[in-house]
Amino acid sequence: MLVKYNGESKEFNNNVNMFEIAKGFSNSLAKKSVGAKVDGKNVDMSYVLDHDAEVEFIDIDSPEGEDIVRHSTAHLMAQAVLRLYPDTKVTIGPVIENGFYYDFDPVEQFTEEDLEKIEAEMKKIVKENIKLEKYVLPRDEAIKYFRDVDKNKYKVEIVEAIPQGEQVSFYKQGDFTDLCRGTHVPSTGYLKAFKLRALAGAYWRGNSKNKMLQRIYGYSFSNEDKLKKHLKLVEEAEKRDHRKLGKELELFFLSEYGPGFPFFLPKGMIVRNVLVDLWRKEHEKAGYLQLETPIMLNKELWEISGHWFNYRENMYTSEIDEVEFAIKPMNCPGGVLAFKHQLHSYKDLPARLAELGKVHRHEFSGALHGLMRVRSFTQDDSHIFMTPDQVQDEIIGVVNLIDKFYSKLFGFEYEIELSTKPEKSNRFSRNLGYGRVCTCRSFG
């Protein structure tokens, strides 16, 4: 059969695996490849080719190669966990930036000390250089395997979601077998640069109604030098962690009496007020008028805006005079009410209204993180009311203001996403009869 790679063609016998094909082009190519593409489709190096094809090889140091390494390292960790804690149930273990995680259902909760044991066991498995072998089963046989042999209800649920009649792929490495599409490294010996870094809680399928599992995070790279460089960056970043600096500089603190609700100290208020003064100055230059809207509003308003039906679980509520109220999770309904409370002439447009509004949104305890993920924060909102022929100029003005703050004043890189009016728009905005642009930025 004729195989074409990188502009070069060579003849091979039929039924040759990708490793041998890579070796046929060069030994170094075979040595550094952790996967391949056959006619654009990703395959393992053990994949047997039986027809003429154009192929590519995935270098271990390439971004795609490192993702394969990270995926395989997740399997490596799961194997180590089961060797040490055989009654643990494994669930899913995807690749993430700079590493991976795997969610487990352990008999007893893992500790930081357990991470050291797991990592040591992973290194033992690497030295064993176990081959990773792919095989497939019919969907019903896969369900039977996980239900009767592996006794893993989580995997059963995953496979049951696969359509009838489809094949289900598995990877086996020694005493460990896992449900997986691949692609994976040829053997565990390729996995030499990893570090387990943290434990966290995670609901199965991300649903708070399901069981809380335990997630183990890890870093993984194609070589030790990359791992060391990344760990050094992490170490430097920890020195500049805003939670650490906030405490050392006496800027803010968080209390167990109000998880997710920051306390700003006098020095923190100095910094905050400087930012607010800058915000006011720049918005005045751009022709904005400042608003302040109530922090708590009647349930009916949130029903009109759609928040009550689409965001209710993340809102804090209270009852006043037997009427249900909600603390605002967004400033928009209040901003629209402020404009709507009196009649306007087209000569009043565009009307640029801005607010530094305190909003509250419920977050799970496990998701809270310093000032980056909180339950109360000040959101910089602007609402611009205009006629259709003013839309283009106003959007350009908003973009210029955003760029001035983020790029020119603070030197940040940023991305802009455009939100358009949905087809099922609510009667609240429809009754206004004007176009509206909303921009949101937030701090503390």
Determine and state the CATH class of the largest domain.
Answer: Alpha Beta
| Fourth CATH level, the homologous superfamily of the largest domain | Threonyl-trna Synthetase, Chain A, domain 2
CATH topology of the largest domain: Threonyl-tRNA Synthetase, Chain A, domain 2
Total beta strands? 24
**What is the rounded Rg?**
28 Å
The average pLDDT score comes to 91
Can you walk through the features of this model?
InterPro entries: aa-tRNA-synt_IIb, aa-tRNA-synth_II, aa-tRNA-synth_II/BPL/LPL, Beta-grasp_dom_sf, TGS, TGS-like, Thr-tRNA-ligase_IIa, Thr/Ala-tRNA-synth_IIc_edit. Its EC number is 6.1.1.3. Residues 270-444 form the Aminoacyl-transfer RNA synthetases class-II family profile domain. Residues 1-59 form the TGS domain. It is an enzyme of class 6 (ligase). The structure is a single chain. The protein is α+β, with helices and mostly antiparallel strands and 444 residues long. The protein has 3 domains: 2-59, Ubiquitin-like (UB roll) (Roll), CATH 3.10.20; 64-239, 2-Layer Sandwich (Threonyl-tRNA Synthetase, Chain A, domain 2); 252-295 and 331-410, 2-Layer Sandwich (BirA Bifunctional Protein, domain 2). Helix content is 36%, strand content 28%. The chain has 14 helices and 24 strands. It has helices at residues 18-25, 27-32, 63-84, 112-128, 139-149, 153-160, 224-239, 242-248, 266-285, 299-305, 307-310, 332-340, 391-409, 427-430; strands at residues 2-5, 8-11, 16-17, 33-38, 41-43, 48-49, 53-59, 89-90, 95-96, 99-105, 133-138, 167-173, 176-179, 193-203, 212-221, 252-253, 263-264, 289-291, 296-298, 317-320, 323-327, 351-360, 376-386, 435-443. The strands form 7 sheets. Strands 2-1-7-4-5 form a 5-stranded mixed beta sheet, sandwiched between helices. Strands 8, 9, 10, 14 and 15 form a 5-stranded antiparallel beta sheet that branches. A 4-stranded mixed beta sheet has the order 18-22-23-24, sandwiched between helices. Helix 3 (63-84) packs across helix 4 and helix 5 (139-149) runs antiparallel to helix 6. The radius of gyration is 28 Å and the shape is elongated.
